[in-house]
Amino acid sequence: MKLLKNIFMYLSVLFVISCAQKIPNATISKIAPKEDKGFPFEIQHEKPNIKLSHALERNYDAYLGIQPKYNELYTQFKYTEIKGLDYSNHDGTITRRDPSKVIFENGKYYVWYTHRQTPTSPKGAAKSNDTIPSSDWDLCDIWYATSKDGFTWEEQGVAVPRPPKPNVGWRSVATTDILKWKGKYYLYYQGFMEASGKRGDDCPVAVSYADSPDGPWTPYNKIVIPNGAPGQWDQFSIHDPYPLVYKGKIYLYYKSDYGVKGNLIRMQGLATADNPLGPFTKYAQNPVINSGHETTLFPFKGGIAALVIRDGNEHNTIQYAEDGINFDIASITELMPTAGGPFIPDAFTDTKDGRGITWGISHFTAVNGWSTNHSILTRFDCDLSQDLNDPDMKKSYMTYKPEHYYKHGLNGKQKKRIAVQNEKTASSN
Ligand code: AAL
After folding, report:
1. How many of the other CB atoms lie within 10 Å of CB of 89?
2. From ligand 1's centre to the CA of 294, what distance in Å?
3. What is the pLDDT of residue 202?
């Protein structure tokens, strides 16, 4: 019986092959499998069931939509000058930079930031002293401002001053971010024990806490996130501490600079804790984001999204990690907010469906050149929200005037190199 069956199958296969050989070409194309028809003209939001190139596979698998306008994690950024803050005619003696996330409490928005008010603008580590700052974030305190509409801000003064020597942060407290946890507020910040730039930017993370966003803030006076062990990527700096509540824990992302001065590589790491005062455990496979500068993240759907701004292979991208750890590129954009502190209504609710962000505060540095070096706060708007659909934020091009391009023209050294090359080309012909 089995033998008969095998013979029958063998004959059937032979029959099919011989028929196929006799079918003329025109008929073959009609009955050819679907994948030979080519990529369809009609827009396909679902991945078509045909053989695709690597790029097209990626276009369906890596992004939340097949075009920026369908991609919830794509946006342009629009900037508005904020009102209410004075900068002493931009002479470099007042800086405001590295804003925290924005929170809404007591009927108003709150933001905290690095505030410097010094007799001169920064003069570099060698010329710095007890009153002359080395860098824009040297000799700073943490101040805060409130606003009813997010455009006009009223400065409220100091939140966390530099503590007396030898406490962590006695030289400068800078680059803060806010956490709300079990009804209390926590400000994390970089605590400098020497002028930045002396050996680098050596500043472990310290924290102060309060019962109200208006303070008073109690300094914990202990390092909560120490630098890495000697030889590790984060051995010298923990920058931009950025806490969120995720999976029942505090997920604090941070940046570090590794490598040697002049060739620093910036990446983002993660430390988690069950208690705001620690202990924090650094994720074993840090860094978790291979690019980016100041850290800006927010809960999105079931995971965490990140603005990966300048520096690194993946600068100018928005990334997403379904588990808060394994980040992939979700979109590529431009004019990203520097040191963005977004308003994230569900930053601390341990949401399982993060709704995203639509605006925040960021900064512009060296606004008036280097001799009067200082930074200003600005407002940014965007559409990275599941609850907003603003087509004006989803365009995928920006036009810049020729002056903008020429401002980024060749420098003297490059012009010389080209002149030498021109001479070589001329003499070899
Ligand atoms: C910023 C941040 C940190 C650094 C300095 C002030 O870009 O990464 O805050 O220490 O510069």
Report:
1. 10
2. 7
3. 81
Nearest residue to 125 (alpha-carbon basis) of 63, 49, 198: 198
Residue range of the domain that includes 150? 78-404
Determine the atom of ligand 1 nearest the C-alpha atom of 137: 6
Residue 199: per-residue pLDDT: 74
End-to-end CA distance of the chain: 84
How many separate domains does the chain show? Answer: 1
pLDDT of residue 37: 76
Q: What was the pLDDT predicted at 5?
A: 53
Token look-up 């950024």 returns 77
- What is the atom index within ligand 1 of the atom nearest the CA of 365? 7
Give the model's pLDDT for residue 33: 46
Is residue 347, in this structure, part of any structural domain at all? yes
Give pLDDT, residue 36. Answer: 63
Range list of β-strands (E), 43-99: 78-81, 94-97
CATH at residue 318: 2.115.10.20
CB of 301 within 6 A of ligand 1: the answer is: no
Inside any domain, residue 40: no
Low-confidence ranges of the chain (pLDDT < 70): 1-36
| Residue 201 beta carbon below 6 angstroms from any ligand 1 atom | yes
Q: Which atom of ligand 1 is nearest to the CA of 237?
A: 10
Distance (angstroms) between ligand 1 centre and the Cα of 311 equals: 13
